[in-house]
Amino acid sequence: MRADIQGLRALAVASVVVFHFWPSVLPGGFTGVDVFFVVSGFLITGQILRDVDRFGAGAFAARFWAARARRILPAALLVVAVVLVASWAVMPVSRWPGVGAHALSSALSLENWRLAAEAVDYGAEGAASSPYQHYWSLSVEEQFYVVWPLLLLALTLLVRRSGGLARLGRRTVVGAVMGAVLVTSLAYSFVVTAHDPGAAYFVTPARIWQLAAGGLVALLAVRGVRGVPWAGVALIGVGFVLIDTDTPYPGLAALLPTVGACLVLVGGPTGRFSFDRLTSARPVQHLGDISYSVYLWHWPLLVLTPIALGRDLTTVDLVLLVAVTLAVSELSYRLVEQPFRRGRALRTPARACVAGAVSIALVATAAVQLEHRGDARIEAAAAELAQAGTRGAQDDCRGGAALDHDCADPFGPVAADVALAASSDLPVASSEPRCSDDTGPFSTVVCRYGDPKGRRTLLLWGNSHASAWSDAVAVAGKRLGWKVVVASRSGCPANLDLPSTTGGPREQSTAELEACAERNRWVLSTLVPKADVVLMSDLRAGWADGSRSIDGFVEAIEQSREAGAKVVWLGDVPLTDGVLTRVDGPQCLQLHGQCSNPVSKALVARVVTERVVERVPDLSVIDVTSRFCDDERCYSGIGGVSVYFDGLHLSGTYSHSLGPWLARELKAAVRRAG
């Protein structure tokens, strides 16, 4: 293997590992994956063009896919299988279904599409990292390996059978088509990155151009251009430093690592200080040799180790984990990659393809089993929780009620089965039949609770955090004798300064933001005039740093008042970690019994409330802090139940338990509103 190619591989895998272990050190290290794409396109295109002529069309296809199976599947499927077993052993049961689903997608080389779907799925916001999510790039490459040889083979046969094309020559025809694929994919990448940034990162059509770019370099067969490789390295390095996770990607920014890798590939051993010669050092070459195994092993080790240890990793832990990654990768390379790639047992295409298919089927079956067993355990725990809720409906020490009565310890540990059940304990508005608007096109769906004959109407308006209060307002409405309308939409706060970013960790498409703005206009023009009281509830922590204007919140309050409604501002539910990071409540409780977050981190949204009150001094505010926190910390388990059903939203059980308290607070808040 060429020294510069192994050097590129070493650079790419090192950047990815550093980014995952120490993100702040190399904010654009994730672009090392783009370098891998270019190298793969370069090598595969060159191999295809050589082997089609050497073996003929029929034999070529079988030999090519057999070689891919020997090269990729043994180590990839081994890691999938080992991680399945490790996840079963150390992860909370509530994560089994997700791990199984991602393992299945990874085994079938579809992980990038699953992650793309989850990137636009509001229900997946704040979800814990999958130990398989790095398989997205392998999935893109595997899909490329299916389509690309067929395309090049078809073009080769077409040129041979067409006199006009034959005169142009295969290289010209193939180059023109590859160029067209590159331009089309690049244009699509620009468009989808602008309009749907969450999914754009993972989808294959937005990435094919990078593999095609490597293919064009192989087709041109340019080699030995002095100085150009270092310009390529500089571009890659600039990307490592200037690009970060806030950069729209892939899009225009992806040209840096892609063009950079292409420039390196047209170089060669053209001088004493050439990239080729300087990366010929044995340690660099060996890291390039084991780069595939390093890439496969580093991420699941990083995800699973803190779960197994029951604590966050220290700097020393991370350094040791890098050493473990290198050691495991060395074993994987010597005992799995090389024997299967070069051994005699799978040399024939038929044996390799059959063995690959059987192995995929076995791993996929195991993945499905873990997913189904997790689902069954969750369903059984949920049924038990429902029965306990019926039996304990008047229990003064259950859930939020424990904060108002003489109970032993409201913040005591939560039973593992209760915590497990909480992972499916969605608020009533988000349960089936769902009446909380999702992230799709604008709709007029609302929920109606409380007293249907009530003389007053309460409108709860906001994003999914308003939906999470639906159980509480339903109870409060019945106690107060009010009609209750819940107008909630996922990812769409009661803020009239939209479309713009809504302050959450999930990237939103232009269409979603526009639908949110349309939804809010409809709520303001149609529902607010019919309401006596408008209760506003959202996740507002994204506005806490002052980088986003609160004008939209103030405008919503003022226009609601102009429509004749009294406005009550419901404080934010505490965060489980930081503004953009989450700790899944049920999962944490399953592992530790109780979890908490310092008040300084959990209640950052109080700053937003204070800023809004400065603008609207007579705003009536309900402070929810006492329902979740003591003087120092905010808790994920209260009164023996889980406060959250994920890392963000109130569980249905805890929300319901807050109903009597909310009724009292609403009555007082409306009086204050005048």
Q: Features of this protein?
A:
6% strand, 674 residues, two-stranded antiparallel sheet
3D architecture notes:
The protein is elongated, with a radius of gyration of 28 Å. Helix content is 59%, strand content 6%. The strands form three sheets. A six-stranded mixed beta sheet has the order 1-3-2-4-5-7. A two-stranded antiparallel ribbon has the order 6-8. Strands 9-10 form a two-stranded antiparallel ribbon. It has 27 helices and ten strands. Helix 4 (96-107) runs antiparallel to helix 17 (349-391).
Layout of SSEs?
Elements: H1 3-21, H2 32-55, H3 57-90, H4 96-107, H5 111-119, H6 135-161, H7 163-168, H8 170-195, H9 197-200, H10 208-220, H11 228-242, H12 255-265, H13 275-278, H14 282-289, H15 291-309, H16 315-342, H17 349-391, H18 416-422, E1 447-450, E2 456-462, H19 464-468, H20 470-480, E3 482-488, H21 510-527, E4 533-537, H22 551-562, E5 566-570, H23 585-592, E6 596-598, H24 599-602, H25 606-615, E7 620-622, E8 633-635, E9 637-638, E10 641-642, H26 652-657, H27 659-673
Parallel strand pairs: 2-3, 2-4, 4-5, 5-7
Antiparallel strand pairs: 1-3, 6-8, 9-10
Compose a concise summary of this entry.
This protein has about 675 residues and is an alpha/beta fold. It has helices spanning about 5-20, 30-55, 55-90, 95-105, 110-120, 135-160, 165-170, 170-195, 195-200, 210-220, 230-240, 255-265, 275-280, 280-290, 290-310, 315-340, 350-390, 415-420, 465-470, 470-480, 510-525, 550-560, 585-590, 600, 605-615, 650-655, 660-674; strands at about 445-450, 455-460, 480-490, 535, 565-570, 595-600, 620, 635, 635-640, 640.
